[in-house]
Amino acid sequence: MPRLFCLAMLLFAASWPSAAGAGPARAEPIPYEELERHRIAGERHVRAPEATGSEPRAIELDIAVDETGRVVAVEPSRRNPASGRLLADARATVLGWRFRPFERGGRAVPASARVGVAVFPPERMPARPVAFPDVPAEAVTIRLDRSGFGGVFPAYSVAVRGDGRVTFDGRADLLVAGVFEYRIPAAAAAALVDRFRAAGFWSLEPAYRAGGEAPLEQALTVTAGAETRTVLDASGLQAGMPEAVHRLQRAVDEAADSERWVRGNERTLDALAAQRFDFRSDAAALLLVEAIERSQDAIALGLIERGAPLSAPAPPCHGCWERDVHDAALAAAIRHGRRALFDRLADDARIRRMPDFARDDLLLAAASVRSPAMVERLLAAGASMAATTYGGGGVLLEATDDHWEAASDADQIALVRLLLARGADVHARDGIGWTALQHGYDDSPELVRLLLAAGADIDAGAPDRTPLLYLTEDEEIALIALEAGADRTLRDPRGRTLAEFARSYGWTRVEAQLAASP
User: Fold this and answer.
1) DSSP string of 224-243?
2) How would DSSP label each residue in 483-516?
3) CA–CA separation, 341 vs 289, rounded Å?
4) What is the DSSP string of 239-267?
5) Which CATH class is domain 319-516?
């Protein structure tokens, strides 16, 4: 599930640059991938006040974000094990996070998300100070190397010389691969050297390892005149690596503007133009698909405007059915909920000419990102309401399941109403036997009422002890389930009675109702 994966990723990638509603508008739940794309600033971790071995590996929090992208509320989730200073530090850290505004239907909306903050041991400070070599900035070269699990972390190196020359070598799992040479102001390069000097880089240990295979390794290497020193970070924050190393890694990326190549930003296209990149080449067409997968809409739209050929051959077995980049880009736009790109690329006649299974796959993808407009257009172009995933789930199940991303026009209630009106089977089950009601266990009370009104079985999943009543953490949804006649005699997967289950979540209203009518 995305929530669990989010916590794991935060533990492994804490050195990387990631509730209740706010205001009168309903807070929009934000999936993990969208949350990460919108992240601007904020640390992902806190330090345990003292290492006892009993600290949680991560603190789970529910956050509310206002329309400007500012975190305005932070509350511990009901499963959160932290308390005291550690919880206070995590809340203070998350209140410092900033996001680009989240949009739905073309306007900024308040948002909510469940996030994880990794917990690391105290810093292991240098044993003794060692002076940075006394050489001018022009005699210094600073290099950052990142490598890790394929498909998870970008692999690249970037070298910044004290005179402002930069070499970026992008190897894998980033927006733009290749070797690029450019310059930054000499003053900016000198300031970077000064940061390493002030941080006592030569005093740091040569390696910080947490033990076992690290999913991400990062190495800082500084050559100053005739001397060279490397500091390796192999999940180092989990081993007490000083914050200074983490900040220096980030400083190198910021000075070199690595982001233009790694995930893309407003400078990417001009930077490519400065490298004499051919925007009308097949490489530009493939970059378009990568941009839809990894970056902002503006980059993909800009590539189209600069002439990226949509008729170029599709990436090898991208979906194994696309005829060209146009098909591949359209599929990526739907899968990642990019409504502006869908509107730019969608062509009804092209969609009708697709194989039935391909058109149906696009419909399921549009349902998974909860876009009513994309779903309606695909249905009009011949997609089938009978479409199912490899796991057996149908369109309604895709609309209610948790996913990585959501479309900019995501509206789950409007989508579910549309699907029910088109004949979606509210009793359909996926490969593990779950219905839409079970998948929507914590989405919203409105969704639960809508599915129940359509005839959903409130006790679906009861034989396996996974009916809605024992899945949800939302007391309002639990009360709706009781009102709909949910079986109170069942026990949860841990064998607890409903009263015990309610007490563990602090459901005072449910407890009162059980006491009044046991």
Assistant:
1) ETTEEEEEEEESGGGGT--H
2) HTT--TT---TT---HHHHHHHHT-HHHHHHHHH
3) 11
4) GT--HHHHHHHHHHHHHHTTHHHHT--TT
5) mainly alpha
**Tens of pLDDT, residues 247-287:** 999 999 999 999 999 999 999 999 999 999 999 999 999 99
Q: Please state whether beta strands 58-65 and 165-172 pair in parallel, antiparallel, or not at all (unpaired).
A: unpaired
Q: Does the domain formed by 137-262 have CATH 3.30.1560.10?
A: yes
Question: Which residue, among 290, 274, 303, has the nearest Cα to 333 in the 3D structure?
Answer: 290
pLDDT in tens, 76-123: 886 666 678 888 999 999 999 999 999 887 789 999 998 999 999 899
Question: Which residue, among 67, 62, 61, 64, has the nearest Cα to 102 in the 3D structure?
Answer: 67
Structure letter (DSSP) for residue 177: -
In a 3-state reduction of DSSP, which class is residue 219?
A: strand
CA of 441: how far to CAs of 10, 300, 409, 435, 481, in Å? 25, 35, 22, 10, 10
Q: Answer yes or no: are the C-beta atoms of 145 and 159 closer than 8 Å.
A: no
Phi, psi for 46 (deg, rounded to 5): -130, 165
**Residue 344, exposed/middle/buried by CB under 10 A (0-12, 13-18, 19+)?**
middle
| Distance in angstroms (rounded) separating the CA atoms of residues 83 and 261 | 40
Beta bridge partners of 70: 98
CA angle 245, 247, 250 (to 5 degrees): 110
Q: Does residue 491 carry a pLDDT above 90?
A: no
**Is the model more confident about 323 or about 158?**
158
Q: How many CB atoms lie within 10 A of CB 2?
A: 16
Contact by Cβ (8 Å): 269, 297: no
Cα–Cα distance, 163 to 359 (Å, whole number): 54
Name the DSSP class of 24.
Answer: S
Q: How many CB atoms lie within 10 A of CB 50?
A: 9
pTM (two decimals): 0.83
Domain ranges in the chain are 2-120, 137-262, 319-516
Question: Please, what sign has the CA dihedral across residues 51, 52, 57, 63?
Answer: negative
Average pLDDT over residues 384-412: 89
